[in-house]
Amino acid sequence: MGLVVRDSAWLDLCWHGLALLPLPPGDAASLYDERYIAWTNKHLRPEPRTLPADAPTLAAWLATAPRGHFLHALPQLHTSVDEFAEQASLPFAQVKYTDPQHQQLAVALQRHLPLELIEVFRAGLWGELRAGYLELRDQYGQQPHELEEDLMMLAGQFPAVAQVDWLASHPLRHHGRLLRGQGRPQIAVGMASDELQVPRFAPLLQGWHELVLLHVLNRRDASGADPRAGQPGHTAHQQVERLALTLGARLLQVPELGSAQQDWLAWVLRRVPAAQGTAAVAWVGSGALLPGSDASELADLQADVAAALRSAT
Question: Where does 218-294 have alpha helices with state H?
């Protein structure tokens, strides 16, 4: 079974830029981390960076615009840094894309977001490039072989692991991203890092969550979902995320992971005070995140997802 973990300089640049934005704590899509900010400030040239100064304004826009979370779709707009660089000097509204899906996404971004927000963020990404981001990425963003080995270990029990394309992204750290579009789904995860306090199995376990989420989304409608607390679509977002967490905790029984499974749910403990001080995997697997859910419906969904994960086709 062949499984290769790839990377993307363009995706890394976007997620690096998004990680600089101090989004509210209630935004589940936030990549912000002061430790990462300090790390980038230490390594990048201060000029001609604009994102550090513009980050609070951009974050406020994202938090309050009716579809502000749509900026998180921008990483899927280009296929390479070179393609972005060729168009960076053009006003966003004048950029034309040869890929019809990219053109549709560009139109959607303009429909859902203030144009000035998009322009300021694009300018910020360009500034990060000129400040040496690619050189920093080459130095610290190399993919370790351990992640491929860990995924292969997981694929031995769940062949569906090898049925998606895997990406490793240093700026994601403890986070993951599920990208769906043309072709096979892509799952991006962070990379283990002593300096950024990302333990060995954190990327694998985050990837497991994204994989379970993929199969939940294949069976549950999440249209209109919004990761921002207080927004109309937040309940829909929470429902599918909590379903994926619950099923992931129930299905993942891999002795090789040992206590690392607790690390997988560490970010849940930060957002769910009731879970503090408990055995996280058992607590989430019990269905505590889904109060009032129909037990038989959840059991049926679990059976469907488990069958899909264990299928070799």
Answer: 234-251, 260-264, 266-271, 280-285
The residue behind tokens 């970010």 is: 267
Tokens of 16: 């690096």
Length of the chain: 313
Return the number of other C-beta atoms located less than 10 Å from residue 111's C-beta.
Answer: 9
Tell me if the bond preceding 273 is cis, omega within 30° of 0: no
**CB-based contacts of 245, cutoff 8 Å, min separation 6:** 209, 265, 268, 284, 289
3-state secondary structure of 186: strand
Q: How far apart are CA 21 and CA 16, in angstroms?
A: 9
Interval 22-74: pLDDT, tens = 999 889 899 999 999 999 999 999 989 999 999 999 999 999 888 899 999 99
Number of H helices, E strands in the chain: 14, 4
- Rounded Cα distance between 32 and 15, Å, is 10
Tens digit of each residue's pLDDT (9 = 90 or more) over 203-226: 999 999 999 999 999 999 898 899
pTM: 0.93
